[in-house]
Amino acid sequence: MTKIDRIKSSFLKSANDYEINYKSMHWTYYNNLKEGLYNLEGLKEFRNNKLNLNIDDKSENVEQLMLLFKKLLEKVGEGYILKNLDRNNIGNNKHFFKYKGGFVDFNLLHQINILYEITSLVKFTQNSIVCEIGGGYGHLSKLLLNNFNSKIILIDLPEANFLSSYYLMENFKDLKFLLYSEINKKNLEKKDIINYDVVIIPPWVKVDGVDIDVFINIRSMMEMTTDIIKTYFSTIQKNIVLNGFFININRYLKNSVGSNVMLSDYPYDNYWAIASSKQNDFQPHVHQLITKRIDRSGEGLKKELKSIEKFTK
Question: Which residue in 153, 149, 125 sits closest to 138, CA to CA?
Answer without folding.
Answer: 153
